[in-house]
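Students often ask why we bother encoding 3D structure as a string. The short answer is that it lets us treat folding as translation between two languages. Here is a chain of 268 residues written in the first language.
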Amino acid sequence: MYAFDYIKATSLDQAAKLLSEKEEAKLLAGGHTLLPTMKQRLAAPGVLVDLSGVSDLRGIAREGDAVVIGAMTPHGEVATSAVVRAAIPSLAELASVIGDPAVRHRGTIGGSVANNDPAADYPAACLALGATIVTNKRSVAADDFFTGLFETALEDGEIVAKVSFPIPDKMGYAKFRNPASRYALVGVCVAQKGSTARVAVTGAGSNGVFRWKEAEAAFATFDPASLEKLTMSPAGINGDIHADAEYRAHLIGVMARRATAKALGKRL
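And here it is in the second language, the structure alphabet:
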């Protein structure tokens, strides 16, 4: 490690001001991505602005037809929240399979969304549910927020404050995990609201999380059988030492059918 300044912010306004005033400042949420990259000297911020003291960024509430989760809310709280379990039980289940207990205790939804790791779980839920990411400056639809590998629409001085998830009629999430990291080799989130279905894929896209619009169009009825004849081309799919593009492309179809079955309360 190396020398840096550490500042624990007490308000969102203070954090935003520090971020804009301090050269090479980085926000610290759960720290599960930033701290390891600093230890490996892949990142070298001169100032860390810790958000853990900003109480307004933590909490879960139902607001009308949406569940709103504060950016500094840990995954474990989402997984066990009575509010989330009652309104969007599959979102609680998704949170429960992120990493391991240590990760779920410290990692936050805001950090996950802002980092936009191509194998993270929450971005898939955001896209499938049509979530809105609320920052200290504006509200951004999930479709416009995730822009590429580790890239988002966040601008300089902009901080994720909360995420608003519309409550669907049905939702399911299925993930094929890397057994070591528990990141998704492929994860698929499906959601239905009225006659509209949305399908989002994480862990597989060479440009990060994406919507599988061919699958959305294939839902003549919201049923796994509607996807049986649908295949995903390996073009544009990530390949690495854990799984090649062809394998991941196959897994997308499998996970999509499993997620749909879960949404219907079935096992596939």
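Translate back mentally: The domain at 59-166 is CATH 3.30.465.10 (Uridine Diphospho-n-acetylenolpyruvylglucosamine Reductase; domain 3). Keep this in mind for the problem set.
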